[in-house]
Amino acid sequence: MRRAVVTTTATAAGVVLLLSLKPHDGGNAPVQAIGTEPESGGAAAPASTGRSVTGDAVNTRYGPVQVKVTLDGTKITRIDVVEYPSHDRKDQEINSYAIPLLNQEAIAAQSADIDVVSGATYTSDGYTGSLQSALDKAGVK
Fold first, then answer.
1. Does residue 94 sit in helix, strand or coil?
2. Is 65 exposed, middle or buried (0-12, 13-18, 19+ CB in 10 A)?
3. Please, are residues 81 and 104 in contact by the beta-carbon 8 Å criterion?
4. How far apart are CA 124 and CA 116, in angstroms?
5. Using one digit for the tens of pLDDT, what is the confidence trace for 58-77?
6. pLDDT at 97 over 80
7. Beta strands in 1-141 (DSSP E)
8. What is the reported pTM?
9. Pairing verdict, β 66-72 and 75-83
10. Class of residue 28 by CB neighbours under 10 A (exposed 0-12, middle 13-18, buried 19+)
11. 117: closest CA among 131, 127, 132?
């Protein structure tokens, strides 16, 4: 009986480890925009009547970060990160959680004056620099 429990436990642990493996893309992942999600309960957001301004790309230790801001007047309604470090799995992992947090904070603050995300300092610094650049280009104080 004990041997069956040990074998079952080891098999279950092996399956969990196998399923947690993700293929490595060799650093050739395409740059994709990460933006804010519409707050309409999953329904598509209405077409924006605002204007979009792209900030300067800010170089960081791990690669450039660049944002595009959509504004309705002077109100930030959406932020898309059009360029960010994504060369390896660690970059992708860090930015998959950091960028949505940065977007949320910036929209709540309605400015680039936001806290850095712990563990994503370089991305945070590049993000706030590019966001401030976009806001400056848009004439938003």
1. helix
2. buried
3. no
4. 5
5. 999 999 999 999 999 999 99
6. yes
7. 34-35, 51-54, 66-72, 75-83
8. 0.68
9. antiparallel
10. exposed
11. 127
